[in-house]
């Protein structure tokens, strides 16, 4: 805790945590390269970085919320973009609202995590709950026109006879008070209003690219039993990986079962050769939430993501959803081949070889990275929309650069 992280922030206050904050910051930083304005011109650079350094997750969220507000969007619309409902598998959601969320998912990723966020711009004051509903928010509306919201009931003394209505905020739902109209705006009413302002569904039909829409292109798998062992060793496969990880998946179609914990030496302290991937671990946010079952709570789970060039975040146009929708991050050989050879709605993919001659030793790594960057820049200048990094030329005399570096 420190004074510079004290709440409330400029537009919001927050109970909980944003678990995706590091990725959100990285993506907002990357988007600065395509943000441009005819009105501000070069002066726009004075707004960067959008996210101030050393902010808390609340301060970071507030920075981006303010930026979206300054683009001409309303407070409610900006919050809907940053904290969307679980819309992908919501069978009863209207098509209009679903199209709104899907369109904006192509523009920016959600800010996710157990969070109850209160926001205001002076004209409105409201609150929103994360899509999982992992933080409590309860409210009272009294006959003398007072609204009380807190994470628990009983924070203020309220005469039961004065209570007009009360309730709790539901996952992904928004609670909004309009000071000018002097009323509480229902979630469905305010979201349908914004969802119907533009033809999002039509834009998606015209511009969205899906893997299943690409022309099939079968490539030979290149399976060679004589080089199989050498290739597996090159990519770090072990007997344990084969026996306990892969075989249960293939034979029994189930996740492997194992005891918790890993007592092997971490990569930086190991005296054995280790893959570069072993030096990195997935961020894990342990919070006081119940376990989430991805089968029984499927409605809030999704692996979908959009890839490809992004557009200017200061605008809202049909071309903003002209991106490739991936159902999940794992591709089959046929899907990868279709992407590599795609020529669809103006999209093409460029394949870049990331292997080098083993005789070049350590110097070959830096030379190869420079070559990859140069080829990627040239591909962008030539109008390619996607870049595929390939290590398939690996062999006795060809060594791959780790894809983490590339």
Largest sheet: 5 strands, antiparallel
The low-confidence runs, each spanning 5 or more residues with pLDDT under 50, are none
- The named CATH superfamily of the domain at 3-210: Aminohydrolase, N-terminal nucleophile (Ntn) domain
**Estimated radius of gyration:** 25 Å
**Structural class, please?**
alpha+beta
Do you know the CATH architecture of the domain at 3-210?
A: 4-Layer Sandwich
CATH class of the domain at 3-210: Alpha Beta
Counting DSSP E segments of at least 2 residues, the number of strands comes to 16
How does this model look, in words?
By secondary structure, the protein is of the alpha+beta class. The chain has a domain at 3-210: 4-Layer Sandwich (Glutamine Phosphoribosylpyrophosphate, subunit 1, domain 1). The protein has helices at residues 21-31, 57-70, 75-82, 95-105, 187-195, 200-207, 225-234, 239-252, 333-340, 361-381; strands spanning 12-16, 115-120, 124-129, 138-142, 147-150, 163-168, 174-178, 183-185, 209-210, 305-307, 324-326, 343-344, 347-353, 355-357, 386-390, 398-400. It has a five-stranded antiparallel sheet. A hairpin with a 3-residue loop joins strand 2 and strand 3 (124-129). The longest helix has 21 residues, at 361-381. It is globular, with a radius of gyration of 25 Å.
What key attributes describe this structure?
406 residues; alpha+beta; Glutamine Phosphoribosylpyrophosphate, subunit 1, domain 1; 5-stranded antiparallel β-sheet; 3-stranded antiparallel β-sheet; 16 strands; globular
């Amino acid at each position: 805790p420190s004074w510079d992280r004290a709440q409330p922030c400029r537009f919001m206050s927050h109970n909980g945590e944003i678990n995706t904050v590091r990725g959100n910051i990285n993506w907002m930083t990357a988007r600065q390269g395509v943000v441009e304005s005819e009105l501000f011109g070069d002066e726009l650079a004075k707004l960067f970085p959008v996210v101030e350094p050393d902010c808390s997750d609340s301060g970071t969220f507030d920075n981006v919320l303010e930026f979206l507000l300054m683009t001409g969007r309303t407070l409610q619309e900006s919050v809907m973009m940053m904290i969307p409902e679980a819309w992908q598998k919501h069978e009863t959601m209207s098509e209009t609202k679903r199209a709104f969320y899907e369109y904006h998912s192509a523009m920016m990723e959600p800010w996710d995590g157990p969070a109850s966020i209160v926001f205001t711009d002076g004209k409105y004051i409201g609150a929103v709950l994360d899509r999982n509903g992992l933080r409590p928010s309860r409210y009272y509306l009294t006959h003398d026109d007072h609204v009380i919201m807190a994470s628990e009931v009983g924070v203020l003394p309220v005469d039961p006879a004065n209570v007009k209505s009360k309730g709790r905020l539901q996952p992904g739902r928004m609670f909004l008070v309009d000071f000018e109209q002097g009323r509480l705006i229902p979630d469905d009413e305010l979201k349908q209003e914004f969802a119907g302002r533009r033809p999002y569904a039509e834009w998606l039909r015209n511009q969205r690219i899906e893997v299943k829409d690409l022309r099939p292109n079968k490539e030979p798998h290149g399976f060679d039993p004589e080089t199989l062992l050498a290739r597996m060793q090159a990519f770090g496969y072990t007997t344990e990986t084969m026996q306990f990880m892969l075989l249960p998946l293939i034979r029994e179609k189930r996740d492997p079962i194992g005891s918790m914990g890993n007592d092997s030496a971490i990569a930086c302290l190991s005296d054995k050769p280790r893959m570069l991937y072993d030096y990195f671990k997935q961020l894990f946010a342990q919070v006081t939430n119940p376990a989430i079952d991805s089968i029984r709570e499927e409605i809030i789970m999704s692996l979908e993501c959009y890839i490809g060039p992004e557009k200017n975040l200061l605008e809202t146009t049909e071309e903003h959803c002209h991106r490739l929708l991936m159902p999940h991050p794992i591709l089959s050989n046929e899907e990868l081949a279709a992407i590599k050879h795609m020529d669809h709605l103006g999209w093409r993919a460029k394949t870049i070889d990331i292997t080098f001659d083993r005789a070049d030793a350590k110097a070959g790594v830096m030379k190869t990275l420079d070559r990859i960057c140069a080829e990627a820049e040239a591909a962008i200048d030539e109008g390619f929309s996607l870049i595929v990094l390939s290590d398939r030329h690996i062999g006795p005399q060809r060594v791959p650069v780790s894809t983490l570096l590339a």
